[in-house]
């Protein structure tokens, strides 16, 4: 038997899913994350899931890992000390940046400008210049360049970025400086911008490459440490890391280009959601991933996640291909508080995380969290993670009571209901960012909910968005790990080709795309994916002449064999521009960037259909309990999800429990069990499989 193992490390829990490929049998484990060294939590989870499956650790054939190491390095400011080499005259490229301030009018008054990841005192200039046409304007001065590199040797830098003007056209100078850096600064990893982001715009290219250098030592240490720990445990399986765009890359290559991993964790959830939604017959849906620390949302159209060209982590926005995921600081561990000044209830973005965690965890936490509110309302069972975490109901009530006292409310239940309502509105705002603000009506989409805390809030989010059905896949708490284990390897090539439509031709664009495809295909073939098993996707960034931004447009592979590449691009660009901005311009269109993604085949993983049953779910009924709903305590059925059969219909109010998550069905709604074991929640009267 062949076993694939998916691992997803979150802020609170580490999720592990073991998948037997032939039968589709899955085994899952959920253990507390270990922020000081994530590999400890990963190994704990692997041991636990292998023990449950009754196999030796050495029987694991492949490991696929979604990681937040790069993300956390950015958010916590604990990346490497980066040195930066620029072209003479461009030393302050990061300080000048772009004249954009987030927030409303006059936001610049209170917005603290973040410090660049490479300090000015660690930035040096080299004499030598490439022109915009790729011709050498000024030769490199080797003596001056080596002097500048040596000046960094005593600065304690831990990584080096080389980003020279116009290197996206010709990388000769960058490669030469990188070679000298290897001689003058031995042992220091070097990132060059023409490799990380071979596209125009000096600031974005420099910032993205500096970010790559910033997280590279941390990611390399983690990957090497994890690989060594796996080997020590007798696990000889190849290790692959999930990229931000939902594809896999070998661990060694991931350590070289870690800027492509910044949204590795959330991308796994979107990939897993797409797999289960497809089995249930839905290709257009929103994803809602609520964990212990944050909530990630995305939009999937036609079974494919929307891919963006900007990755945002905290205040940092880099040009890297990623699933278009939006994140808000709303999770099970989000802390509720009442500021003295406003006396208005707030929830998050501060989180109790894994340590100490919510008060219910009994690990020293005393502040009221969303998890504590759900405990008070009766929505959570007495244990989480299969008995890994026992909940302290009294501690939750005491914590939430402090909110009730601060607001003059009658009892902790009213305060808990307020906490849940506010966090739901926060997450609704995030879902609007990927739907309404992108020109999509959420009522045209289903809503796939997962994460340890997601199914508790999914029904309420469906009611707010009008997105039906709400789909809760099996094992929603470890769905990110499922996505890691069921996706494919991927590679990408890109280049800038600035041409007005009148200045280029179908043949020129077709030739450039073919060269990029060949380059990416060769790298994927070197990883063991034969050419005949590869899938190629093309994307072109376009704009109207005079615009300062581009819009990515997908191009069908068959366009490369026809003679109408530019006309297809023009039609697709106009349609996307109309959808986004509701108007078109008469200006000539321009090609800016070309991008090709080559993917291997998705694994042929079986899935086990549930035993057919009727609408009666009584065989899965554990007991009847009390929950707070619609302003009062009401009776609710408590069900064991593992005992449900396909076709069962659970009328709300109801709580459906399982090892890694809990699903809440509100009054006036019903959950139908699909044959693929997903729960499909709709308003009562429309609940069909």
Automatic annotation (TrEMBL):
PANTHER family the record matches: 5-OXOPROLINASE RELATED, HYPOTHETICAL 5-OXOPROLINASE (EUROFUNG)-RELATED
UniProt protein name: Hydantoinase/oxoprolinase family protein
Pfam families: Hydant_A_C, Hydant_A_N, Hydantoinase_A
Transmembrane segments: none
UniProt GO MF annotations: 5-oxoprolinase (ATP-hydrolyzing) activity
Source domain of life: Bacteria
Domain Acetophenone carboxylase-like C-terminal: 507-672
Domain Hydantoinase A/oxoprolinase: 205-490
UniProt source species: Gordonia aquimaris
SUPFAM superfamilies in the record: Actin-like ATPase domain
GO CC annotations on file: cytosol
Family matches, as InterPro entries: ACX-like_C, ATPase_NBD, Hydant_A_N, Hydantoinase_A, Oxoprolinase-like
Residue span(s) of domain Hydantoinase/oxoprolinase N-terminal: 4-184
GO biological process, one term: glutathione metabolic process
